User: Fold this.
Amino acid sequence: MRKTRRTSRVGESVRDALVDVFRHEIKDLDLGLLSITGVEVSPDMHFARVFISGLDEKQTKDTVRELQQRKGFIRSQLGKRVRLRSTPELDFKFDETAMRAGRIEDVLAEINKEPKSDDE
Assistant:
């Protein structure tokens, strides 16, 4: 999705409203260790991709699947909190950025541990 000033601003509003929905409307899921790392809104404002990350990869992926199943309810609650002509369709995605960064750090640490040869 192409990012503009307007889509960024709407994305931030959607993110803030979703945090509020998660805190007050979804009581039966353990959302305590999750973060909404970003929201990408389409230029026509009809779709929003919501990136979720957490400490435990498996639990976070399970929660993202659960949020996908409840996206109709979440969207209706979102519509009550944001002032848009139409509430965007939501698509929840697991954000792998933190996991990838951790793997890169592990690889770099492993490289730095390797003994150097005499040629260097």
In short: The beta strands are 34-41, 47-54, 89-94. The longest strand covers residues 34-41. The radius of gyration is 19 Å. The chain has a mean pLDDT of 86.
